[in-house]
Amino acid sequence: MIIDYEAVIRDLAAELRAEEASERAAYSLAVDKIRADFPILSESVNGKPLIWFDNGATTQKPRQVIDRISYYYEHENSNVHRGAHELAARSTDAYEAARVKVADFIGAASAENIVFVRGTTEGINLVAHSYVKPLLDSNSEIILTMLEHHANIVPWQIIAAETGAKIKVAPVDDTGQIILSEYEKLFNHNTKFVSITQVSNALGTITPVHEMVQIAHRHGVRILVDGAQSISHIPVNVTALDTDFFVFSGHKIYAPTGIGAVYGKKELLEIAQPYQGGGNMIKDVTFERTIYNHAPLKFEAGTGNIADAVGLGAALDYVSELGLTNILKYEHDLLAYATSELDKISGVKLIGTANDKTSVLSFVLDNFTTEQVGKYLNNYGIAVRTGHHCAQPILRHFGVESTVRPTFAFYNTFEEIDVMVRAIYELN
User: Fold this and answer.
1) Residue 428: predicted pLDDT
2) Nearest Cα to 400, choosing from 382, 373, 377?
3) What is the band of 117 on the pLDDT scale with cuts at 50, 70, 90?
């Protein structure tokens, strides 16, 4: 019997494509249900349905988060930790329950490891000034990477200028991935701290944070991981990762703006000095001295962003119900599809092509500025980010000053990608 192997291969390939299409269709049904949870996705822009591909800048909010914030203001609104009345108890319970949810979501040992802040930027500044700065002198060195957002560069430059410390930068390869061997070469007896991103906001590169944390600890150095772009896309367990600090912003994970969190190992939070002073972070005050509360409260001076912390808790509940593993798989398929389709367009150059990426595409188009591309896509209701994305060093490393950056979330669809690709074809 003669077997037509080519026919067998074709049949298997067809079956595989059919299975993939079936799986995609099944998930699309779930995506339709998910999209119904997000009121803003029903908006029209220039007479077209809104296509929100600017998730790297901020994510949209589900009805469950919006309703939870409304409920807070309608039934619980009060300052926390300070009153004996009923609403103070309700507000405090809601606020501290949100802290527990953050701890559980990122695998922290305790809610006492979690400090509420306005977002990743404030969190990095808190760690820089409260913990790292007292460690530094003119011989000290801090290690960053070429991939960092300005929020993970400028705070370190400020304290370096104040102390005389120096900043060293781990390089990337031609795809935009950290070169681990070069990273390790930067360590010496003067290295005092490391601060790295888990996912590049400009390229989407997923950095090898587990290995980078291990290398830092092998050299006796503490490390911070910036999770702003990873928190909504990749399962994170800070205990398993063994990072010393982890920071993220709520608005990157379907929560309100103005709220975020710092995770810190308990012994480090106890050593660190308060970044700001005021009410709520004290045990006792006289004009001669102040006794601070224990962490995390000693870092939360004044009235916190209570309602949005509660909203953050609701957002984490929402994401947890969907499952980050499911989200990661679906968004990976979106990214792979968009990358493949854009790569077919003459004149499109992809910036950042690391094997390990999530949800971020950066590209330039021959003969058009990135602003022109962004404005053209807006005519079709497509929202993308254009510019340097607060990551000028890494873009300049690739020889560009700005890119067009569509970024994807679990409520995006393959059909939306098709609309964007067709628009770019027409522009080109």
Assistant:
1) 80
2) 373
3) very high
All residues at 6 or more sequence positions from 135 whose CB lies less than 8 Å from its CB, including other chains: 192, 193
Q: What is the pLDDT of residues 287-298, one digit of tens each?
A: 999 999 999 999
Amino acid letter, residue 173: D
pLDDT tens string 313-334: 999 999 999 999 999 999 999 9
Question: Model confidence over 38-80: pLDDT tens digits?
Answer: 999 999 999 999 999 999 999 999 999 999 999 999 999 999 9
- The structure tokens listed for 216 are 């830092």
Query: Annotated catalytic, 390?
Result: yes
Measured CA to CA, the distance from residue 228 to residue 230 in angstroms comes to 6
Do 281 and 292 form a contact (C-beta atoms < 8 A)?
Answer: yes
The H or E element that residue 395 is part of is helix 392-397
Neighbour count for residue 145 (Cβ, 10 Å):
27
HSE (side-chain half, CA atoms, 13 Å) at 332: 11
Secondary structure E strands in 14-160? 44-45, 48-49, 51-52, 114-117, 141-145
Active-site residue, selected from the candidate residues 146, 390, 400, 427: 390
- The DSSP element (H or E) to which 340 belongs, if any, is helix 324-342
Residue 213, number of CB atoms within 10 A of its CB: 22
**Environment class of 375 (CB within 10 Å of its CB; exposed 0-12, middle 13-18, buried 19+):** exposed
